[in-house]
Design brief:
The protein is mostly helical. It has one domain: Orthogonal Bundle (Ribonucleotide Reductase, subunit A). It contains 22 helices and 4 strands. The protein has a two-stranded antiparallel sheet with strand order 1-2. A hairpin with a 2-residue loop joins strand 1 and strand 2. Helix 5 runs antiparallel to helix 6. The relative contact order is 0.10.
């Protein structure tokens, strides 16, 4: 008697997982079980049209991820046992890791929470499974990132209390507010914000250049977690596109809603990634590519092809795309100038770029760097050489929406600060751009509640009335160790000792921990 092959195909397994395990409720109304599925106005006529191109099932997921974990943690152990931190290009590189750990890693945890929540609110089983898978991915990412960077915490300052700092430090409210905004939106807007705008349109600008930068600077632990996560990110990106197409194909009334969300989250993502522009152009001692080049490759070329494809659904490119394209020549320089001034309130060091680095910036930005930014850095360098290193002893005004300091210039005039304001319900609110002002106008009730760190300090809600007290007591930044100028800092002196260039002083420790 012939025996039937009982092994299911991947397609059959996925079918059972995402269709046949679902059921129609009999004693509760569907709209009561999934109350958030309709209030955003998105119309879903057939959840069975949901397609996951990876058709990933739980057993395949566990097996695949377990293999990656074995290899990843073996490299982490080898990196630590061989004092891998001594092989990086320069200790200035670690400052980029500090910004990544405090600004990006907590977002992975926010994404984990967000997907776990929104998966509960879809009546379609396929969408629920996709959200559950991605939620687990995001939790894995935050764990591996913290593990990879924990080795540096033994040898350099400023990597402690990263979660505490993420919730409180003024510039870290930029990434934090982005995810808080997305997580407090409806489930379909959350997917548009994170799965599409961030994961599909913009994530390559974060992961690919930064991980390549880690490789160029000898940080194999970060490279390994980056490429381990990148295979997950590729799956997330594909799903992000499928999410958008699914909504657009379900009903024509969804098109204007999705377009509005694309406009909003493109601009919010662009503002968030301005921090990455600074990391690439100024914080990596060995540079891979400029922010301008990365923007042209990963947004203008790839994004251009994407929005060409979406034209058939009635979707156009994001409203403020042209302003972002103009900004590629300026934002990294303007942001590094700002952090150079305010590094008394950061958990990382800043410095004037070397002559070789300024020459590289001149080559990368031939129309702007020498004309607008080199003179500024050279002036500050002269001040520093005279013992008058410049610090701005205040804190900057923040945009009510993106929470980036209002430091950027007008898109067509780099000599004029971009500032917008409007009065809502008797109060005046300030913005960095037309993009952020538009977002506020659409949902003022949401953004008037923004927790702006600088406002909170001046209102006396941060354990002190002056910057030094707030930095030490409320931020948990160790003044004189974690912040201020890099040259002469404990990290710099420790690095000199590691390289045998200069002995440590009597009071210096080889370990920062």
């Amino acid at each position: 008697m012939a025996t039937k092959n009982k092994k299911l195909s991947l397609k059959d397994k996925y079918q059972y997982l995402t269709r046949d395990m679902a059921w129609e409720p009999s004693y509760q109304k569907k709209e009561d079980i999934f109350p958030y599925e309709r209030f955003e106005g998105i119309k879903i006529t057939d959840w069975d049209k949901w397609e996951d191109p990876f058709r990933l099932t739980m057993d395949a997921y566990w097996k695949y991820q377990a293999e990656k974990e074995k290899k990843l943690y073996a490299i982490f152990d080898a990196f630590a046992q061989n004092n891998g931190h001594q092989n990086i290009s320069d200790a200035r590189y670690v400052n980029a890791l500090k910004l990544f750990l405090t600004g990006v890693s907590p977002l992975e945890y926010g994404a984990f929470q967000g997907y776990a929540k929104v998966g509960r609110h879809f009546s379609g089983a396929g969408a629920r499974v996709a959200c559950q898978m991605q939620s687990i991915d995001e939790l894995r990412h935050v764990q591996t990132q913290i593990h990879a960077m924990s080795h540096y915490n033994k040898h350099f300052n400023g990597l402690h209390d990263f979660a505490h700092m993420h919730d409180r430090v003024w510039f870290l409210s930029v990434p934090k507010s982005f995810f808080d905004d997305a997580r407090s939106a409806g489930p379909f807007e959350f997917l548009t914000a994170i799965s599409f705008s961030f994961e599909y349109v913009l994530t390559n600008l974060l992961f690919v250049p930064f991980m390549s930068g880690a490789a160029y600077n000898g940080d194999m632990a970060t490279v390994t977690f980056g490429f381990s996560a990148q295979s997950d990110e590729a799956r997330h990106m594909t799903l992000g596109l499928e999410v958008i197409k699914f909504m657009l194909e379900q009903h024509e009334d969804n098109v204007p809603i999705v377009q509005h969300w694309i406009d909003k989250w493109f601009w919010r993502g662009y503002r968030l990634l301005s921090l990455v522009s600074m990391m690439m152009d100024y914080m990596l001692p060995n540079k891979v590519m400029s922010w301008k080049d990365a923007w042209e490759v990963y947004y203008e070329q790839n994004g251009g092809a994407l929005f060409k494809d979406l034209e058939r659904y009635g979707i156009r490119p994001p409203k403020y795309q042209d302003e972002a394209n103009k900004g590629k020549h300026h934002i990294s320089h303007q942001l590094w100038s700002t952090f150079y001034q305010y590094s008394q309130a950061t958990n990382f060091h800043t410095w004037i770029p070397s002559e070789a680095e300024m020459n590289w910036l001149s080559e990368q930005y031939p129309d702007t760097f020498d004309k607008y930014y080199r003179p500024r850095f050279e002036h500050w360098q002269k001040q520093q050489e005279q013992g008058e290193r410049f610090y701005n002893n205040t804190l900057p005004q923040l945009c009510q929406v993106c929470q980036v300091p209002t430091l950027f210039t007008e898109p067509d005039d780099p000599t004029q600060l971009s500032h917008r304001s409007l009065v809502h319900d008797g109060e005046r609110y300030h913005f960095c751009s037309d993009g952020c002002c538009d977002i506020f106008k659409h949902e003022p009730e949401k953004y008037i509640q923004a927790w702006l760190p600088v406002h909170q300090i001046y209102q006396g809600n941060c354990e002190g009335a002056d910057v030094a007290t707030v930095v030490a007591k409320y931020y948990h930044i160790n003044i004189g160790q974690d912040n201020f100028e890099y040259l002469g800092s404990p990290d710099h002196r420790r690095w000199q000792a590691i390289k045998g260039n200069k002995p440590l002083g009597a009071g210096d420790s080889k370990d920062a921990a």
